[in-house]
């Protein structure tokens, strides 16, 4: 996974960016982000360090911090166009991002570059599990069921208000966790639970 590095900002990139983030245009601490794959020339973009952590999936994606993308996508810099396209795709559940994607035009070669890495795999986007109230869940948390659930393939019924301790997150599905109810390991949908304080 590419890592940002500050010390390698060459003169060409510094002149092109004017010392500003090439995505949001803020004057702030910048990192050089090489837009994968490395096979493409001029693939480096000057990006805010705070945005890089979301691009790489180190921090959860915060849609409100990306509302500048509909402007950034019109950049004349191909690497910025590619990065904007990828981030808009990751945010396409937001109406503003979907609308921007509908009008964004990339030439065939730039679009091929944008699609050369999977939408989420490019950044190794972190899968974030959230409870019914939007609280982030972690392995080992305790949760409370907000609905009585019948367990498929069993006569077990997990009652409303049941506390499930020491949960495990289902790695590839942000809508599921695993936990023990009456000694039986079951999969529970995150929309039917809340994190215990």
UniProtKB/TrEMBL annotation:
GO terms for molecular function: hydrolase activity. Keywords: Hydrolase. SMART domains: PhnA_Zn_Ribbon (SM00782). Residues 12-56 form the PhnA protein N-terminal proteobacterial domain. Transmembrane segments: none annotated. Pfam families: YjdM. InterPro entries: PhnaA_N_proteobac (IPR013991), YjdM_C (IPR013988). This is Phosphonoacetate hydrolase. It comes from Parapedobacter luteus.
